[in-house]
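# nightly structure sweep
# worker-07 picked up a monomer target from the shared queue
# config: single-sequence mode, recycle default, output format = structure tokens
# input follows
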Amino acid sequence: MAPEAASLPAIARRASSKQNRVNFGGDEGLSRFSIDSVSMAEGSDNGSAPNDSGPSRSGPSNLLAASQDTFTKQETKAVNSVKTVVYLILFLSAVGFAVGTYFLVEQEQSQAYKSDFYSLTDMVAMDIQLKIRNAVTQLQTTSSSITSLVTKTDSMVTLPQFDRRMQDYGNTTAMVLYAPLITQNDKIRWESYAKSNQDWIDKSLEQRGWTATTSEIPPTIQSLNSTSIFQDRFAPIWQMSPVPTDRSIINNDLLSLAAVASLLKRLDESAATKKAEMSGLEDVTALLAFSNEFDALTDEADQSPTSLLAVPVYEDFTSSTIVGYVVGVFQWNTMVTYPLEDAEGPIMVAISQSCGPSFSYRVDASGPSFLGTGSMSHDADLENEYPLFSSCDYAVKVSSSEAFKDSYQDSAPLVSAFLVFILFLFIMSVFFMYDCIVQRRQKKLLMTAQRTNAVVSSLFPEDVQRRIMQEAEANEKKEQRMTVTNKMKEFLQDTNEQPNNSKKATELRGKPIADFFPEATVMFADLVGFTAWSSMREPTQVFTLLETVYNAFDEIARRRRVFKVETVGDCYVAVSGLPDPCVDHALVMARFASDCRIRMNDLVKELEVSLGPDTTELAMRFGLHSGPVTAGVLRGDKARFQLFGDTMNTTSRIESTGKRDRIHISQETADYLIKAGKTHWLKLREDKVTAKGKGELTTYWLAINKLRGGGKDMANGSQSSEWSLGDSDHHQGAGAEATSTTSDDEDKLTEKHRRLVNWITNEMAEILRQLEVSRIGREDYKSLVDLEQLSVMREAGKNPLDEVIEIITLPRYSAQSRATSDELERENYMLPKFVIDELRSYVSTLAGMYLENPFHNFEHASHVTMSVVKLMSRIVAPNIQIEDDDIEAALHDKTYGITSDPLTQFAVVLSALVHDVDHPGVPNSQLTKEGTRLAELYRDKSVAEQNSVDLAWTLLMEGNFKNLRKTIYHTEDEFKRFRALLVNTVLATDIMDKELGSLRKARWNKAFNEEVVEDQITSVNRKATIVIEHIIQASDIAHTMQHWHIYRKWNSRLFEEMYKAYTEGRAAKNPAQTWYEGEIGFFDFYIIPLAKKLKDCGVFGVSSDEYLNYAMQNRREWELHGEKVVAGMVESIRMKTSSNYRKPALAADGHANVNIDQLNLRQIPTEISTVPMTELPPALDVLFADGSDTTCFQFARSVAKIAPKWNVKFANSGAKAVQIATQPNTKFDLIFIDQYFVSDDSEVLGTDAVIEMRNTGIRGRICGMSANDHENIFDDAGADSFMFKPLPQNPEALKQDLLRILNGGDEDDMI
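# output follows
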């Protein structure tokens, strides 16, 4: 369409929109223009003469029409020329693409032909090589077995089960013979030995079910065909497979058979090398005639060459003296096979040798066809040659055939070219139709523009037309004069206020909205450890983390007036100094980054309760750089505000070379901060940073700490005014004003321990809530009885292992219960608080029962629990068509009932939590070897696992968990099912017991591989039981099927645990010697097959693929780098064990020589009592007040090991503790007191008891205890120290805590 033709309607629209603002001199002026004027204009368009009355304006109108006609003709001619060129280009393109497609498809066929041929030749050659290698291995193994029986005084031996051994190797060889080497002097003795020991033939015939045709072997050594080339030696056939029915073959001298004699002579000549030797093509009909399978073998021999393979038997394993021979007969037609059933066309296989003629086969899917001896005479365009065996220089050459090549050539190139040509013709026809429609529309628009122009010309004089055009042009110029910065502000404001209304920004008319900003500071912040962390999480959990963190950063950005540019994956990009330039952009960004860092550290602690273990290990890595940037709106679909320039690249380098939880800044940003008087915020980085294109850069660490009382926390949404320097890595108490301090490692672990307990409690409480909701909908809910007295009473001599059952019956689907559950879900049913409190107490106590092993610890149990929760949430139904009304029932059936039974889910999660309780850090085999009490109790089977079941179950049966038990099970059936699930699942984690492993494998095959005749309900329950066992097994080693960093973390901990056991004398072998090969074997024979089984279950969706992919990746990484990793782990442990990690005691010099053994805590002032002890006093009076019998028992057991002479008394309430402590003539050196004893609020709290003790003059050290952070209130009450519960179970760890308390340290001082 011509530009002028398009502009005329636009002019008319502008004119109509401006009419109300144009002054025509009032109504009188308007009355001069009549309808006749309009009619005149329209008439002129039709060629009639204008009306001569009225003002004359025909001149300008006719002039415009004439110029328009001329322009239209010129544009039409130009457009037609362009269309002709376009049609010609399309036609030539059609021809060109068709020809190109033909050659491309033909080339693909040729490449497929070559690729498949070479792959096929590789498989053929490898198959032959493997079969020859297996044959050699068979004979060498047999030779070694015979050598082990030979003595230097007597080489006449008989290998037991000779025929059965050869059968076990399969059909690698057609016949295997053993012939001892007999000298002339031993000939008579041999004949006597052979006659008296020929009963091996009868035993072998009996095993095969064959009948002998002769009853006795020849009494003397016989000759087969010719005279032996060895005059003084014989090699009588003694044992053979298949066992002969005709015993006359026995005692025939192999050396009398020329083909065999020459081969054995070569063996004698190369005896020192101890290698197998192969003959050329030999006629061994004389041997095969004695085989019970003679007919089959000779028929094949007529069609295929036969060779001999021989291995010597030595006097002993170190000698090169030959005392016999093991000879194998194999036929080449069994060696050559076609590896692919679906391939088309035969291939030619030629086998060459230096000991005789070559021979050839034609091989296809039906099998090999012997072509004869000599070289192949057909022409082959592709061939490949491979060595087979060094003896006789055997080699195989595989060649293509015409039929094989023809199978890859068809009419696809021609058909593809034709289709491409037709497609282009279709495009040309569509383009032609579109062009016709456009021409028709253009004609209508042109006619409308001509009429509109006539109307405008007739309505307005030239000066009015000019004014209208000038006003329209002025508006366009006004928009063009609008500054880029203002346009940018308008865009950013629009996208922030109305994110979905960005049509104006995405229009590509006019210049782009972009500008240059000479001064700005850019921040890149990246989540460290995010990739590994996300590999263990559900997608929803990943997005929960990102949304929470980035929304918090957005809130800080709004307050700090920092502009958020974008988030790319786990990287957050922000800038200060634009779109509104500011001189303190570096200062603003530094404070923003510091606020984000503080907020991030707070958030991960909060989120670990909901997102699970290791969340607190996440941290941000910040990078800041200042410089010029180009900023603008990148228009198009989903327009975005973007930054470009070298500053962005440098910022990325600064960020990527930084460290976790630190703010890394460039020299340019540091200069701005120094200029602003913030030199104390900076700490020079000692090492230089190398950036691409920049060389070495000088950088700094930014460390801003808020002073105590210096204002509110900006990171949490309020103002802050005072700042100070601090090292973000080592906030070492630089005075009372520093608030951000880094705790010792043990303090971090304790804090993390509490968060893990809360997370597990929340997960299990949610399952219990679902269990209670599902239970309310049952018909028998109101008739449920109290099962408080129900417990497991095992018969004498029986253990949890005896309770393992093959099938656990899960409940059937109930539509009524589901409907009631849905209604209660809508009502937000909540568990009672006392149930949740008991659950948290139970989990806390279990956590305290874990020993401080590097691997088998509470943190690993939490990791396993998280993996179980993930797998349980990923149990889905296969892709099936389900009606909406039946979806719940169908899911129940297709997932074997696991998804609809919360009790099953709770039992599996609990099993993950308790499966390593009280694990000693050594395998069951070591416990059995040491003859421990547990090994004796559990009869050396699954010792640690059974112990964990008993401990967890005994704890659950205690009186203070009554409400929890009532929530878990309501009926006897639920009780039995819960117990069975717990026992089966925990004991499934014993993967080292071969017997249990075989039973599990058999159950898997019975459930998923074998055709078992049983009813559907039993089949579903069988599969559910197997799936549950595989859930806990996969979760127990989930780190091997997660990100490489996660695998490395737990693998190094397991290695450290095993190495520790070795150094303590509790392991026979150094694990470093076999760790690399052991891990590869573990991947190949357990982890990867287990991941494949998860996929075969068909209920885990994409998680099974995810686990298998990670397992394969980790296996490849370990194979490449495992040896270096093992060396690094060994070195790390050696450095760790050779260094003293205990912090130096902060004691005054005046107390350096105090005798700790004679120290009486009641008689020394407070400052003396802080003397750093290194050993516990030999005798102390201790009062331990705690409401849990389990906690008291654990404390007593640990103290008995580290301080056996301490006098420990116990109290189960606060009032009882005060009563005992204030008795006359009673003084306690050390008092431990818990904050809560029972749920009754009227009970005396621990802090109340401390206050009363201090008021009565108790001067002994008092240590408060609680699972919550009650340190401050105990301190206010007068306690000296504080400990978090549960207490350490490891005696050494408890000893260090007791030393801390005796040294006057708080929880923050734990080492």
